[in-house]
Fold this protein.
Amino acid sequence: MIDLSKIEEKEVMEGFKGKFIHTENSTLAFWEVKKGSILPLHSHIHEQTTQVLEGKIELTIDGETNIYENGFVAVIPPNIPHSGIALTDCKIFDTFSPVREDYKNFV
């Protein structure tokens, strides 16, 4: 059993604070994002799913822009450019497969 309240929150980039759990094959990221925070255009080898738990975020995935809010899930295939901006304060749950080795530095 993992108690999220015992995991230290880390600021990965301005306005993005996360708690991370690494399994054998994936990384789980629980984010708190401040309104106006920008996710710069980037891509990575990981398949990513992004579920908005609270708030609204605008995501551009492979050139297509949509607004995501509670109940919406974005699926981002590996190596696809994506970016975003938090339209409100947000709580977001991401999964990455395979494991985000670079996020292990934040544990």
